[in-house]
Amino acid sequence: MNKKIILLIGGPSSGKTTLINHLEEEGYICYPEISREVTLKAREQGIDQLFLTNPMLFSEMLLDGRIEQFENALKEEKTVFIDRGIPDVVAYMDFIGDTYPEKFIEACKKYKYDKIFLLPPWEEIYTSDSERYESYEQAMQIHDFLVDTYTKYGYDLIEIPKVSVENRYQFIIDHL
């Protein structure tokens, strides 16, 4: 298998982190979702929900972090799996109905992933917590925004079936 930058996308609580962790256990290079890190850093500065308080600052921090992840992935010698990508930032901003600078769009055009796997909403595994505040209904809407955004930027999305993590892992390996 040639080196690739592979992205896992999907709405909140669709199983991305569990799958990324499994891929890592199988020996793959994986980069985690960075929004929790951004949220926790903001909390340390006294901002409970940065995304809700200042969505533009939150999104700019995510965009910068995801560009950094992409650039780091380019330096790796093997395939890298990443939990969420640069176009996710645009999809979420569209979801909340906020505007964003042209640099967001330019980043989506400049940094291209080799393959995108989509994890659909899955109510049976859905949970919320202090960093994941969206309802299941909102998670389904976010899913639609993600599909629209990634399609707009020319990606063919490969939907992962709602099966065990081991079977999801095997599905990805079979479709690389």
Global outline: globular
The CATH architecture can be named as 3-Layer(aba) Sandwich
Query: CATH topology, what is it called?
Result: Rossmann fold
Strand order of the largest sheet: 2-3-1-4-5
By CATH's scheme, which homologous superfamily applies? P-loop containing nucleotide triphosphate hydrolases
Q: Briefly note the structural class of the backbone.
A: alpha/beta
**Approximate strand percentage:** 5-15%
The poorly predicted ranges are none
Query: Averaging pLDDT over every residue, what do you get?
Result: 90
CATH uppermost class: Alpha Beta
N to C succession of SSEs:
EHEHHHEHHEHEH
Number of strands: 5
Task: State the helicity in percent bands.
Answer: 40-55%
**What's the total helix number?**
8
The largest pleated sheet is described as: 5 strands, parallel
Integer count of domains: 1
* Whole-angstrom Rg: 15 Å
Protein name: NadR/Ttd14 AAA domain-containing protein
InterPro entries: NadR/Ttd14_AAA_dom, P-loop_NTPase
Organism: Flavobacterium indicum (strain DSM 17447 / CIP 109464 / GPTSA100-9)
